[in-house]
Amino acid sequence: MNIGILYIAIGKYNIFFKDFYASSEKFFFQHANKHYYVFTDQPHSISLTNSNISIFYQENKGWPYNTLMRFHMFNSIKDKLNNEDYLFFFNANAMFLQKVDNEILPSAKDNYLVSAIHPGFYNKPIIEFPYERNEKSTAYIPHEKGIYYFQGCFFGGKTQNFLELTQQCMQNIDIDFNNNIIAIWHDESHLNLYFTQHPPKVLDSSYIYPEDKPIKGMTPIILMRDKKKYGGHDFLRGTTKHRITNYIKKILRRICR
Questions:
Q1: Positive or negative, the Cα torsion across 80, 54, 186, 122?
Q2: In the chain, alpha helices (H)
Q3: What pLDDT digit, counting tens, does each position of 173-229 carry?
Q4: Which of 25, 97, 129, 178 is deepest in the core (most CB within 10 A)?
Q5: Gap between the Cα atoms of 209 and 206, Å rounded
Q6: How far is the C-alpha of 137 from the C-alpha of 181, rounded, in Å?
Q7: Which residues are catalytic?
Q8: What are phi and psi of 45, to 5 degrees?
């Protein structure tokens, strides 16, 4: 089985790759042929001594565009990804703590897609989900729709199905962008819309376990490392606290309407 792993290491996020790679090689589909497709603005920072790593230069467009445009990145190398049986994306700060194998593979009833429930909305009522509620956005989800809220830090599936997801989300983002709209949670908003239309295999939050907010009664399988230990969001993104604060205030105003 051939597994393609998509990874974005723009700006200072490249500091996470070494440990991600080592833990993936140890725990993630141990007997599969794995290849890592890494997007970075600093190719020299990623070791090329391993033959299963391919580097793709990606301009640092700043936040939130580095996350919003991830589907565009994936689509740009789709011809190189077609030889893989499955594709999986992981946020830069992911690290495997336990064996992850065939149990996460989706079937036809899952639309050959898989993702994990956002820890912040695990066992929460739908009314609290931060779906995009702007009807002018292509990521819009009506209040009566949806079952889970998925975090954009991990998703995957059979290659054809993953690339269909990538293509649709990319097109929707472009439509929004042309209309001067950015969905409330960027790529994650578009991903959640797609998953309301094509329900994936649902994994619990142990597969995206937040190091900074332990979940009672749950053991981490894949750890999302605490970014505060590595300088915090502003440092890793290269953004200013003032800009982030204003953006969060804008989001809160939309949610509280």
A1: positive
A2: 17-27, 65-68, 70-76, 78-81, 159-178, 186-197, 232-237, 241-255
A3: 999 999 999 999 999 999 999 999 999 999 999 999 999 988 989 999 999 999 787
A4: 129
A5: 5
A6: 7
A7: 188
A8: -85, -10
